[in-house]
Amino acid sequence: MEVPTFRGTTLTCMEMAYFNYNQDIGPIPGQDYPVYDTRLIDYFVSKRMTAFRFLFSWEGMEPHLGDTIPYADNGNYQAYFDNYKRIVDYATNVQGAPVIIEPWQAEPGVRGDKAKVGGARWRGDLVGTVQVPTAAFADFWAKMVANFKDNLLVSYGLVNEPNSMSTMSWWASAQAAITAIRNAGSTQRIFVQGNGYTAASGWTRDYYDTDPTPHSNAYGWLNTNGPGAPIVDPANNVVAEVHTYLDATEGGLADDITSVTAVRDHIAVALDEATAQGYKIYLGELGIYAGNPDASAAWADFIAYFEANAGPIVGFTWWGASMPQWWHDLHAPYFAISPINEDNFTGDTVNMQMIQNDF
């Protein structure tokens, strides 16, 4: 099923952090994560946004590997699932907006030997290890999609920003998840991220691979199932998800803009490779602080590039937004476009003022 090109935003803060709540008790609504109000979705739809990338916590959905989803043995976990699905259902069924559901294992900072929590991990351990076997990742996705496979406006992002791992191990895990999703009876689009925080400009490079013989994500896509055997999807409905920012590290951690053409320059690396090999890309994250003197020009240059390449680039989602008091910093690494007024969901940030005419 071909999905129209879309423009939207990432919805954050329901990914939370597993170490901030008791695993037995579960996450507490309004304390460990925001309880989304449907008026937030209405606000973004009023800006003509046509899609949402909605992040969640794998540990919040599945507190123990192999659990059912939703996890019915604890009220807080059930409430977490219910709150998430309620907003997915509202965005899709009421507002008609596609939603990409995607786990993100929030970065907690330095925690001993698990300082790199984030990406393809569960409770700090990498997917593809003894602690979190690839089979557990595939099982998680099979159970997750069982709750969404009948909603054709829902698609799946395998995990936000894999990093600090073997590139080929990640691609093997991605293949296992794709296979599990299709075996579960779901035909919706699957967005596949790359190792190295899925950086667009690094798609054809290998600096992020922890293997002795490093490989790029471009290589991984084409050799997932062995030399010359690319990633396989029986539904032929997978897209590469890439991210980019305009600061010197391209990580969205600062407000500087290295060049007004930085976004197109970064994306072109992944797009040129994808086009040559017959697949498409999606820009899952982009954020710019509107207060930077070059911001408007950089945003306009990106929009021109996106519109010239719509189709090969299937869509983009701004980083980021949430309930107003949970995500309101205008600067890096937030680039908030949440409405200013938390009582009636009105008021545009300077970031929203800069981008709102391009949805």
What's the layout of helices and strands?
Layout: E1 6-11, H1 38-46, E2 51-56, H2 58-61, H3 75-94, E3 99-103, E4 121-122, E5 125-126, H4 134-145, E6 154-157, H5 167-183, E7 190-193, H6 217-222, E8 238-243, H7 262-277, E9 281-285, H8 295-308, E10 313-321, H9 350-355
Parallel strand pairs: 1-2, 1-10, 2-3, 3-6, 6-7, 7-8, 8-9, 9-10
Antiparallel strand pairs: 4-5
Helix pairs in contact: 4-5
**Alpha-carbon distance between the termini?**
23 Å
Number of H- or I-type helical stretches: 9
Main sheet properties: 8 strands, parallel, barrel
The number of strands is 10
Strand content: 5-15%
Helix content, binned percent: 25-40%
Strand order of the largest sheet: 1-2-3-6-7-8-9-10
The SSE order reads EHEHHEEEHEHEHEHEHEH
- What structural category arises from helix and sheet content? alpha/beta
CA-based gyration radius: 19 Å
Low-confidence blocks of residues: 110-115
Mean pLDDT, as a whole number? Answer: 95
Described by the principal axes of the CA atoms, the overall outline is: globular
Defining key terms:
single chain, 359 residues, alpha/beta, globular
Descriptive overview:
An eight-stranded parallel barrel has the order 1-2-3-6-7-8-9-10. It has a two-stranded antiparallel sheet with strand order 4-5. Mean pLDDT is 95; it is low at 110-115. Helix 4 runs parallel beside helix 5 (167-183). The longest helix has 20 residues, at 75-94. It has 359 residues and is α/β, with parallel strands linked by helices. It is 29% helix and 14% strand. It is globular.
